Amino acid sequence: MVLLKKKKKKRRMHTDLSLETPDHDHEDYKTIQEGDDRGVDDDQNKEVDEEEEEEKEKEAAAEEGSEAVLSLNEKENQKEDKDKISHEKPIEDEFCMLQAEIDRMKEENRVLRGVIDSTLNDFYELQMKFTEIQQKDQPKLIIRAIYQAFLSLGGESSNELFKRVDKSREIEEPLMAADDKELSLSLSLKTYADPHEGEDASCDEGKGTGLTSWAPVEAKLQGAGNLTSVTSQSINPATRKTRVSVRARCTGPTMNDGCQWRKYGQKVAKGNPCPRAYYRCTVAPGCPVRKQVVQRCLEDMSILVTTYEGTHNHPLPVGATAMASTATATANFMLLNEANSSSTINVEDGIPNRAPLSSFLRPYLVKTNPPLSAVSSFTSSAGYSSNPFGAKFP
DNA sequence: CGGATTTGACCGGCGC
DNA sequence: GCGCCGGTCAAATCCG
C-alpha cells in the first residue's frame, strides 16, 4: 500500500507539471481537480479518472495479497514507459501530419492551377464566340453594352432607365417625326446641344467640318453643374472613321480608361492655350485606335475632353472601365447607323425600339457624376477605315 | 537598357 | 501659290 501511494504521488506530480501549476500535495491536487480546474484538460481529467479506477482496482487487488500487488507494480511500470513514449510520439505524428497536409495542399494547388488554366481557355473561346455573335446582332448588343456601362456609372435602376428613355423618346418624338426612318444620330445631334462643343470642334474636328451649332438645352444643364454633351456628325459616307468624344472631370492629366496608351505627339491648338495630346492604343500591336486629349477646357480647367478615334482590333482589357467600353460601343453604334440608316433597333427588356442614342444616353449624361459626364460621337470623313465592330465588350 | 515621353520638323488639307 | 493649321513622325531625352 505504501508503495502504491508513493506511485500515485509521483504520477500526480507529472500531471501537475503538464498543467504548469505549482507543486502541491495530494489533497490540494484533489480539491483542484474536483473544483475549479475541472474543465482544464479532458485528457488530464481522463487520466485522473483512470487513476481513480486503478486505485480502486489496486485496493481490491491489495486485498487479494502481496503477489497481486507485485504484478500490479509491473503493470504500472510498463504503463509508465508507454506514457513516456506516447508523450514524444505526438510531436512526430504532428510533424508527419503537417507534412502530409502540405503535400496534400501542394497537390490541390496543382489541380486548381489546371482548373484555372482551362477556365481561362474557355473564357477566351467564349469571348471570341461572343464577338462573332455580336457582329451578327450588333445593335442590340451595343445598346446593352452602353446601357450596362452607364448603369455602372450612374447606378440607376433599370426601371428608372427605361422610364427615362421612354420620356426622352416622347420629348424627341416631334423632332423625329420629320424623318422617322432616319435613325438616331443625325437627328440627335440636332437635338442635343453643347455650346462648348463648338469650341471643342476647333479642337476636335478642325476647321470647316461643319459642326452643327448647338441649342442651349445642355447649356442649362451645364449651368447646373452637370457637364453634358452628346454630339455627332456625319460627313462624306465614302470614307469614315468613328470619333467618340468623352468629356469628363478629371484631376489628373489624363483619365484612366483601362486601356494602354502611348503618347506620340502634342500640339497647341489654335484658340485653346491648353495643349492637345495624341495617344495611340498599345494594348495590341497595330491597333488603329487613337485618342486625343485636350487637357483642359478654358471654361472649366478640371474638364478633360478625350476623343477616341477608330475601334479596337482586340478585346478590351478586363480592367477597361465602362468609359472605354461605352466609347467603343458608341463608335460602333455610329458606324452601324451610318451603314444602315433605316435599321430598327429592337432591344429586349423594355428598351424601346429605335431609341436614339442620345436619348438613350441622356438620362445618364444629365445625371452622372464625374468622371464620366459626356459622350459625343462623330463619324467623319477620314483616312482609314476600321472594322466597325472590331471592339469586344468585356 | 528598354520603354515612354517630349518636342521640333515635316506633311497634307484647306482657305485666301 | 502661299500661309495656316492639325496631325504625325522620329530623334532626343527621361525614367524606372
UniProtKB/TrEMBL annotation:
GO molecular function: DNA-binding transcription factor activity; sequence-specific DNA binding
Predominant place of localization: nucleus
Extent of Basic residues compositional bias: 1-13
Acidic residues bias locations: 48-66
Keywords, comma-separated and alphabetical: DNA-binding, Nucleus, Transcription, Transcription regulation
Coiled-coil segments: none
Residues covered by region (Disordered): 1-90
Cross-referenced SMART domains: WRKY
Protein known as: WRKY domain-containing protein
